[in-house]
Write a structure and sequence with these properties.
By secondary structure, the protein is α/β, with parallel strands linked by helices. Helices cover about 40% and strands about 15% of the residues. It is globular, with a radius of gyration of 19 Å. The protein binds NADPH dihydro-nicotinamide-adenine-dinucleotide phosphate.
Length: about 300
C-alpha cells in the first residue's frame, strides 16, 4: 500500500494462475495415470445469466484439459427426470464433479436435487455432508466463491491466525462457508447481517472485511479500518447514465473509490472475486478426481 491508496488484488490474474496450475496438474494426471478429470454441468431452463455461466464453465474446463459434459434440459423438466440424470452422473466414473446450475425452476425442490449429488462429486460444496464436514474440520469440498476469497486472503496475509475477520452476509453460498473457512484458518470471525446492530462499528474492527450482501456500494470508507483487506463478493448491476441512455455497469457491495483510500488491499468489481469462482470450480473438480482415485492432491488448491 502506498499512502492512502490500497493495493488492488487482481482476481483476474490470480484466477489465471490457478487455472494454469490446474492445467499443469491435469496434464500430469493424464500422462502418469491415464486419468482425465471430468466435470458435468446441468442447466435446466434458459435463464440468460445461467447460460453465460455454463458456457464459461464448459470453455474453461476444456481449456484446463478436463472433460466437460454439458446437460441442458428444458424448463419444464420434472424433478424426477433431473434426479434420474443426477443418479446417472453419480454412477459415471468419467464424471468426478457434478454441478447443477442454480437457480432451478420453481417446481423443482433445490434441496432435493443438491442432496442427491454424491458428496464426493459435489464440486459446489452445497451438499449437507460437505457443509457438515467443513463445519467439523473434516476434509470437504467447499463452495467455490468463498474458497476463492480464502486463497486471495492467504496470498495477501500468509497466515490468518488471530486476525479479526468480519463477514457481511450469512448466505449458505457465501457468508456462512466463508466464516467457516476463516475460522478454520484461526481468524477471529464475526458474521453480520441485516439484523445486526452497530454494523459499521463492528466492520471497522476488521483486519479482513468480506462483503457478500448484494447491495450496491453499501460499505463506505467509514466502515473500514485503515490498512484492512477488503474482499468484495457483491455483483450488482446499476444504471450508468454516464455511459449513455439505458446503459448499466457492475459494482460491488463496497464503495471502491472511497474505500480504496482507506484499505490496505481491496478486490475490484469486476475483476476481483468473480473470476476466482470458476477457477475454484476447476480446482475442486481436480481435487475430487484425485481423491476418487486415491492420488495426491495438488498443493494449495483446496481449503
Ligand atoms: P443473499 O441474498 O443470499 O444473502 C445476502 C446477505 O446479506 C444476507 O445474509 C442478508 O442478511 C445480508 N444483508 C442484506 N441486507 C443487509 C444490510 N443492509 N446490512 C447487512 N447485511 C445485509 O446473497 P448471496 O450471499 O448469494 O450473494 C451476495 C452477493 O454476492 C450478491 O451480490 C451476489 O450477486 C454476489 N455473488 C457473487 C459471486 C461471485 O463473485 N462469483 C457468487 C455468489 C454471489 P439476512 O440473512 O439477515 O437477510
Amino acid at each position: 500500500m502506498t499512502d492512502g491508496v490500497a493495493d488492488i488484488i487482481d482476481g483476474k490474474a490470480f484466477a489465471a494462475s490457478i487455472r494454469a496450475r490446474v492445467g499443469e496438474h491435469v496434464a500430469r494426471l493424464k500422462a502418469e495415470h491415464g486419468l482425465t478429470p471430468g466435470l458435468a454441468v446441468v442447466l435446466v431452463g434458459d435463464n440468460p445469466a445461467s447460460e453465460v455461466y455454463v458456457r464459461n464453465k464448459g470453455k474453461q474446463t476444456a481449456e484446463a484439459g478436463m472433460a466437460s459434459f454439458e446437460h441442458r434440459l428444458p424448463a419444464d423438466t420434472s424433478q424426477e427426470t433431473l434426479l434420474a440424470l443426477v443418479a446417472e452422473l453419480n454412477a459415471d466414473p468419467a464424471v468426478h464433479g457434478i454441478l447443477v446450475q442454480l437457480p432451478l425452476p420453481a417446481h423443482i425442490e433445490e434441496g432435493a436435487v443438491l442432496g442427491a449429488i454424491l458428496p464426493e462429486k459435489d464440486v459446489d460444496g452445497f451438499h449437507p455432508v460437505n457443509v457438515g464436514r467443513l463445519a467439523t474440520g473434516q476434509t470437504a469440498l467447499v463452495p467455490c466463491t468463498p474458497l476463492g476469497c480464502l486463497m486471495m486472503l492467504r496470498d495477501r496475509h500468509g497466515a490468518l491466525s488471530g486476525l479479526d475477520a468480519v463477514v457481511v452476509g450469512r448466505s449458505n453460498i457465501v457468508g456462512k462457508p466463508m466464516a467457516q473457512l476463516l475460522l478454520r484458518d484461526s481468524a477471529t470471525v464475526t458474521v453480520v447481517h441485516s439484523r445486526t446492530r452497530e454494523i459499521e462499528a463492528i466492520c471497522r474492527r476488521a483486519d479482513i472485511l468480506v462483503a457478500a450482501v448484494g447491495r450496491p456500494q453499501m460499505i463506505g470508507a467509514d466502515w473500514v479500518k485503515p490498512g484492512a483487506t477488503v474482499i468484495d463478493v457483491g455483483i450488482n448491476r446499476v444504471d450508468a447514465p454516464e455511459k449513455g441512455p439505458g446503459k448499466t455497469r457492475l459494482v460491488g457491495d463496497v464503495d471502491f473509490a472511497a474505500v480504496s483510500r482507506v484499505a490496505g488491499a481491496i478486490t475490484p468489481v469486476p475483476g476481483g472475486v468473480g473470476p476466482m469462482t470458476i477457477a475454484c470450480l476447476l480446482a475442486n473438480t481436480l481435487t475430487a478426481a484425485c481423491r476418487a482415485e486415491g492420488l495426491p492432491e495438488p498443493e494449495g488448491l483446496a481449503a
